[in-house]
Structure formats: structure tokens, C-alpha cells
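Researcher: Here's my situation. A collaborator sent me these components and asked whether they could plausibly form a single complex. I don't have experimental data yet, so a predicted model of the whole assembly would be a useful starting point for our discussion.
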Amino acid sequence: MNRPNLMLLLLLTIFFSGVHAQNTVQDSIMLSNIYKMALTEGKSYEWLDHLANNIGGRLSGSLEAERAVKYTEAELKELGLDKVWLQSVMVPKWTRGFQEYAYIETGNGNKTTTDICALGGSVATPSLGIKAEVIEVMGLNELASLGKAKISGKIVFFNRAMDPALVQTFAAYSGAADQRYAGAAEAAKYGAVGVIVRSLTLSLDDYPHTGAMSYGDLPEKNWIPAAAISTKGAEYLSSMLKLQPDLKFYFKQNCKNWGDVQSYNVIGEIKGTDFPDKYLVVGGHLDSWDLADGAQDDGAGVVQSMEVLRLFKKLGYKPRHSLRVVLFMNEENGLRGGKKYAEEAKRKNETHVFALESDAGGFTPRGFTFDTDDATFNKIKVWSSLFKPYLIHYFEKGYGGADIAPLKGNIEVLAGLMPDSQRYFDYHHAATDTFDAVNKRELELGAATMASLVYLFDQHGTK
Ligand SMILES: [Zn+2]
């Protein structure tokens, strides 16, 4: 580092120290070094390139998921960590089969094809497909109010859109996801023969977005096929239903559930110098959906988490607590990896104090959400001024992440990296979630932001 930069940093730090005496000059310098290293000698983008372009979509139980396990294990071993290992976990295997096919048939026999994809976990249609009249509903409540008389023998079309008025797009997603997850199970109870769900995205395009669904406790003989339709397809189908309520919808898919197969979480560890028996965790999920290479969801989180440990090694920083990177398997359709990791931590009586997940895309970081008590959160919030030079400002209480959530109750703090979310659902679970949708600098800034928070927690804790 050259002298003028150091002077500026010192001045900045003295200023911030005046505001928050707890934040030291040393912390400011360390954060500056982390960001500089991530932006000039980062490796996350190169790792993501391989994961996305040489391996591809990594659905649990697939050959690609297995290759991703081997690749990330080998790359972590290259970093010279104290320990790298695989944690065995059984995962559900589901395959899509041939490409789905669907059309809308109007009274005079006209057929208009439309873009659909099977939802993850769905059963196939009969080999010749399903053709039936359609009933459009805006959600599970409306479905229940219509009852068996109106639903029986029909395809239920769930068409509630994500709310565009919400700035936090994850809130808009949560507000519409129930129809995708539980729509088929609920519709089957009223005698529906299939389910078509509007894709969970705010963009109006031709890409269907897949995602997990469940039949709950419905007996297997009553399971009905479920697919997502693109938003443009949903708009078209809805408008056609207004003109001709008795039109027919046809779809065909041959996806299949195969039962559980062997897979792994990938874990790397640097032993702590002062508290070797207290663990800090950074992680993302190694599996992805199969329609694309899963660069945003969650290739980005995987390589950013690996980069945190690499940055510390490169900077010669030896963490006081033991630091683990955990690449979780099967977040998308089972969460088995996250559950397994928490189970093992409990069984071995390991003390976990802090876990940070990146699973919201590789976009420009804005800050973090923290799942912890008020007193702890107030201590963490003091660190936010250290992030101002990097345009990171969002320190709020909130959800940590799906894979680390099973640690709750046995950990002080769960945290989630919060990148800008406006474009995330353009790619989420769709064929558009590819490497070219990730920006190198945005990805690297996310990794640096994570490393900085881990560093602060490692140095100061919250007690
Ligand atoms: Zn994800």
C-alpha cells in the first residue's frame, strides 16, 4: 500500500473512531486490504467459470453435482487449509427427462404452444399427456372456496403474480411461492388432474422458472403433475380464458423421482489460534436447478464463501476462532445438506457462534441481514460504519439463510449476505441463470464484504 492511501485511511478511521470508539484503525486497514485483494487478485470468478461452464447445472444426485463435489474439494485442498473433508449425506434424486411440451387449444381446434417446465419433485403426466379444461385461481384460498364441484377433472392454473410494489423482491417471492410449493397437493384434494403455476419472476418473458414442490402427506396414488408456465404464457392463457372459458390446456412431461442417493457437503477448515473449539461458518449451496448452470443460484455463494478463506490465507490472517467453509448439498429440493451439517455439529457437541450464508445472487452487495437477539444485533450494528467506504449500508435484523437455518438455537448469530435483489428473480431457477449474468466485480465485492464481516466477528465477537 502506498503512503497517501494509508494517510487517507488513517484520517477516515480516526473520524469513524470518533463516531464509534469500538472500531479501530487496525480494522479499517484490514477491511481495506481485504477489498483490495478481492478486486485485484480474486479467484471467485475463475472458480465460478469452471463450476458453471465446465460442470453446469448441479441438481442433487446428478453426475454434475458429483463433479462439483470433487472439483470444490480439490480446489479447497489447494488453499492449504488445515483440513478439507466430505460430509456424507443422502439426497433425493429427481430427473426432468425430455423437454416438456404444452399448448392451449381453442374451440376451432387451434393450438398455440406455450413454454412450461416441470416443478421439481413433480410426477410425470401419462405418456400421452393430459388435456383438460382450465380453472384460473389467484391462490390457495380461492381454490378452497371453489371446492370440488368447480375443480374436479380440471387443470388448476395458479396465476398470482409476485407483487411489483415491493422493493425487497424476496418478500414478493415469499408472497407468491405457496401456490408453487403446495398448489398440486391442495388442487389434488379437490379432484384436479394437473396444476400449472405462473413462474415466480417479476420479468415478463418466455422462460418458465422451476422450483421445489411437495405433495405433503397426500397418498402417492393421488399425486398430480405440476408445471410452471412462463409469465408471458400465463398472461396469454389468462386472456384467452376470458374469451373462451372452456378452452383446453394440454401438457406432457416425463420427470421422475428415483429415491435417495449418496452425496456430500464439502467442508474446509482453518483451525483457530485462540478459540479452536468455537466455530465460524461461511457457506452457500453447491446444488442448483437443472435448467441452467446455476451461476447466480448458488454458484456465486459457493465461490464467495471459498474466497473468504482464500483471502485470509493470502493476507496472512490467522483467525482466532476456527473458520469453516461449508458447501451445502441439496438446498433446492430437500435441504438435506443443511440439516445434516447441523445434526453433526450437535452430535459432536461443537460450539458454533456465527454462520454467514450467501444465497441471494452475486450482485452488488448492500449489506447483511442478522438473525439474533437485539442486544447482539446492536453490537454488530456498530461495525456498519467500517463498511461505508465500500457503499455497504444495510445492517438489519432478518433471515440468515436456508442452509444455516438448522443451526438456529445452537448459535449466537445467523447472517445472510444481502446483495441488490432487483434482477435476481430474472434468473432464479430459470434457463437464464448462467455465468454471463454474473459480473466479476460485483461477485468479488460480495466475497470481500463477507470476509470483512467474518474478520470483525473473529476479532471482536459479540460478548
Ligand atoms: Zn439458492
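Model: Some features of this prediction you could bring to your collaborator: The first strand starts at residue 83 and ends at 95. The CA atoms of residues 125 and 253 lie 6 Å apart.
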